[in-house]
Amino acid sequence: MSDQVMFTLDESEQVTHWYNVVADLPTPPPPPLHPGTREPVGPDDLAPLFPIELIMQEVTGERYVEIPEAVRDVYRQYRPSPLIRARRWEQKLGTTARIYYKYEGVSPAGSHKTNTSVPQAYYNSLHGITRLTTETGAGQWGTALSYACALFGLECEVWQVGASYDTKPQRRTLMEVFGGTVHRSPSRLTEAGKSFPEDHPGSLGIAISEAVEVAAQSENTKYALGSVLNHVLLHQTVIGEEALRQLANAGEPGADIVVGCAGGGSNFAGLAFPFLREKLAGAQSPRILAVEPSSCPSLTRGEYRYDFGDTVGMTPLLKMYTLGHDFVPSTIHAGGLRYHGMAPLVSHVYDEGLIEATALHQSECFEAALEFARTQGVVPAPESSHALAQVRREALAAAESGAEPVIVVGLSGHGLLELGAYDTFLSGRLEDDPLSDEALAAALAGVPEV
Amino acid sequence: MSDQVMFTLDESEQVTHWYNVVADLPTPPPPPLHPGTREPVGPDDLAPLFPIELIMQEVTGERYVEIPEAVRDVYRQYRPSPLIRARRWEQKLGTTARIYYKYEGVSPAGSHKTNTSVPQAYYNSLHGITRLTTETGAGQWGTALSYACALFGLECEVWQVGASYDTKPQRRTLMEVFGGTVHRSPSRLTEAGKSFPEDHPGSLGIAISEAVEVAAQSENTKYALGSVLNHVLLHQTVIGEEALRQLANAGEPGADIVVGCAGGGSNFAGLAFPFLREKLAGAQSPRILAVEPSSCPSLTRGEYRYDFGDTVGMTPLLKMYTLGHDFVPSTIHAGGLRYHGMAPLVSHVYDEGLIEATALHQSECFEAALEFARTQGVVPAPESSHALAQVRREALAAAESGAEPVIVVGLSGHGLLELGAYDTFLSGRLEDDPLSDEALAAALAGVPEV
């Protein structure tokens, strides 16, 4: 094997289509239900929020969806994201595993979120929309949408979860650099926001309610969601499609273990679903692992039920692993993983036994992240550190057994705007806060009976 | 021309040698002088500070120096840095120019500095050295050396300019993430530091004095400099060597204008010197432009004289464009450009008329940076924004004249740890602070007569 550690793609190998896992699933995923009628929602129900192209992508059964030329033209600025063999980390771990990380931190927003913000802004721009609203937790999604809106001449208005807004002014500035307008959530600008005290730390569910409320009130304004929905997961599959080709370029016939962190599920699905296709087709047989924080463990401790996507109950009911839509997770540093539910498609494949899931404490994740930074030179986002910590476990197990698995891990973004979290860890002030049985039971009590 | 905008290199095209411009200069650059004897310094004089390989690189006349395999092995993790056609920015500017930016922000430290920190740490590690000391201004260099030391098992101790230390805690944390130890300069740990009040904003010159003092006192400790010296500029030429090949891959026969920001001079030289070689050989005929801040304009308003590299006067005397070694620039946001002198090699080629120089106000630079971010999706380091502002002028001039120059600009790093500066700009609180004639005269009065 050569000394090469960074794998890209020739122009002729660039990904031209997103992959829709629905086409290959043994059973179809349960449909979303209207919050009022409890009947399956149709395209008309979603029209106030989304442009027609995204609605059709939400419900399509086609295996591949072509990436519009205008979107590919933006992807070309930073894609393919590199697939990098983590040789130095392997040496440090003394492992016989071969570890490859797919690094989305090179994107304009510093995370995978641009993969979907760009097509979402593009499709909206085709229909005379002048403004998009959204929520953001860690700030990655708000940043990505602000940039995408700048490209297509749209205004972008972001409700940032209060706890994140208060502790990370740099993140707000970055959204403003890209032209976005940022509000602390809960805000006084919406009925949803006003139903909470002004100093409330907020949650993704509350911020979604605020952004949806504003979008629903104006004809020229639509809403954009950064995870959870089928069309978002679809856009993210560019990650896994590239990774499959890059892995082949690295001389590896396939992956044995595929690992991604999972909050709403789009980063995980983006990497995992193309590998799942290969697995379902019998071409590869990887274990596919979703990693979540022990403080917000929807897959591993939630229930697979219909629940609202937001806190106030304005969205359709989604069949998903949920902790309850009024669950407010502790203010862990991986803001992007603080969501009460899990994408319906990820929930479905988990329920079908096609993927595995595990939950980790954040201290173990930061330890892995620090080791990764000091060897590979990349400071991982706290979200991504969850995937790295699981890879560390797998790599140490391989060192023990002498196995030589090929591990592909999604590094969803860099942590350069999360250095406050690293400072907390380095100074010994980081505390783990796993979800208690009592808090879980209380939150699940709020899930509606359907 | 294809739609491709990002240009990399095949493994077979990777750069294997650094380029030494001294071999091709019409006249040799003046030698450094011993601060006591005022005689040219020899290798022995530098031995307390640097390992033999770096000393030999400092004085070599060889045209090419092979990059050690251990260094190339680290470069492979992030090099070649991408050369990217800035099509969206071109469209925004309405220019007929073709603009390519060479983006060093993908490196572990987020700037070009890793190109030299890695070989410096490596060479020191060959000689039983256990600790490196250094200064840092904006923090880019301290970050790069911390990471390089982590790779080769060395301790790293960094004196960070006080003004930067006070306003950018994230930068300190990043150095600590990579394992470095950070002191505010002026510190109480050195005689040099103690000669200034504890709350002094500091300067690169003072921080250099502190780091040199500590290194000189211990056998197992050496000093590492992040710019100015010949061997540092040599290591940075990997940038220009790659850019030349990538430009050819982009179908461009050569550059018409090459632009880089210049503080100590290593970023500028790294990009420019390989193009200067082509120019001296008659293969290309680019204008080569160094851009500096109007608050610290060593090339454009300094004098070409022997001066000390540090404030206290411990270093050799270097023939360079200088504002005077006790000049303390205003606390502009481009901390990496706040150095009183300019690399002797850059000074020499400027004096010979082989390159041009200009000085810009920081407000114009931030305007260009914001425009760049909102089109290209990259937030430039405040240092790099100086080069972008000059490119903007050139591109608008081309739009006026209809000329179609190929412009290559060095984007030395990202500005994700400088968002406080962007916030200052966005909120209208940014002030320009060009150097006054009186302050210049006062500072030049301190330059020793040689």
TrEMBL record, chains A, B:
Keywords: Amino-acid biosynthesis, Aromatic amino acid biosynthesis, Lyase, Pyridoxal phosphate, Tryptophan biosynthesis. Its cofactor is pyridoxal 5'-phosphate. It is an enzyme of class 4 (lyase). The keyword Lyase applies. Pathway: Amino-acid biosynthesis; L-tryptophan biosynthesis; L-tryptophan from chorismate: step 5/5. Gene3D superfamilies: 3.40.50.1100. It comes from the Bacteria. Belongs to the TrpB family. This is Tryptophan synthase beta chain. It comes from Nocardioides caricicola. The lineage of its organism: Bacteria, Bacillati, Actinomycetota, Actinomycetes, Propionibacteriales. The gene is trpB.
